[in-house]
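User: I'm writing a tutorial on reading structure tokens. Could you give me a worked example: one chain, its sequence, then its tokens, then a sentence or two explaining what the tokens reveal?
Assistant: Sure. Here is the example chain.
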Amino acid sequence: METKNKFWKGFLAGALVMAFAGLLIVGVSAGIFLIGKAVMDNPVQIVEENSPAELPDGKLEFGRILEKMGYIQEIVENYYLFEEDEKLVEDGIYTGLMYGLDDPYSVYYNEEDYLSLMEDTAGEYCGIGAMVSQSLATGISTVMRVFENSPSFEAGLLPGDIIYKVEGEEVAGMELDLLVSNYIRGEEGSKVSIVVLRGDANEEVELTIERRRIEVPTVEHEMLENNVGYIEVLQFDTVTSQQFKNAVDDLEEQGMEKLIIDLRDNPGGVLDAVVEMMAYVLPEDKLDGMLVYTEDKDGKGERFFCQDGKLKYESDYGPSGSDYPKEDGHEVEVPLAVLVNGNSASASEVFTGAILDYGAGIVVGTQTFGKGIVQSVLPLGDGTAIKLTTAHYYTPAGVDLHGEGLAPDIEVELDEELRTKAVVEKSEDNQLQAAIAALE
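And here are its predicted structure tokens:
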């Protein structure tokens, strides 16, 4: 009997709780409905009149989008707990528009980001003196190179370190341009706190690095034993082509008999720079002097040639206002090798592809990255800009390497113990030594 009484007491208590909960749910639902009603005049009508099935193919219906954004903004103004940063919200709208293209290379730059981008391609900036690469698959940013005698070098940053936090904020997955321009770079003399993950155990290492004015050494060169010239190209900036020509000239004056061009970990850069470099190296008697060409979605594009001692340019878009044709009249007439790896991308692959197509040298290392598409930076007239993927590029023989990369003639993996060293001596660099041996 006592058991039955307990059961019915429990049952009645449970029923009362359920009834109260039901009333509470109805009350909350009504509250949500009333809030929604206060903000949105007729949401059902919006859905009916702007059904996705009625949208024009390949077109955004901006009237509908603006109307929806207006409703969202009204909700934010009425119910958002914190203060709204209007400039930040506006930038976020444009950022989201580019993000919706589902293309990691197409991005929006606000005024600060655009200025930083222009500073970057000019070959000089205020930062820590390291080169960082980002995995498109994981969003993880990894240190690829630490410049000698730079703030990063002095603080103990190492190749292979994963950038985990900057000033206490986790940055994994953040778009690389924004990570570099908004977090890592800054005023000269200021300091930045960076936490990196190091080694197989992902040990957290905190480094405090002072920012300094850095002139990117985009080209470095020296004469190795047996008159083997060595030129390392770190990236292709506006200053790179002249630095490269100066390096070739200097090595030729020293009696260079063989040449190695190192494009390992080179992420690419300015197309004009690599075109001028190819024209300075390649002969003109093959493939009609073609260096590289591009094609957009309509089959239009640009073509670069080296003919009659001049670097020439043709475009389907009309006059470019550039200073083509440019005087060239030079080629490298000694045995040539090019070093590449999985981080050699974009303009590095343009250069390597031309070397392969012309049979002008041997390629040593590992498969290249496989980025065969062109991005154009388009200013928007108010200090901001977008970077947009606009075309495929093709090697002189018409190879589209996008997503594939280029296979070396001689495949050699870098020794494991060398991959995290800040400075690798030429004598222990097994890929470089393989290139020297191949030339001999």
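What the tokens reveal: The two ends are 102 Å apart (CA to CA). The first strand starts at residue 107 and ends at 109.
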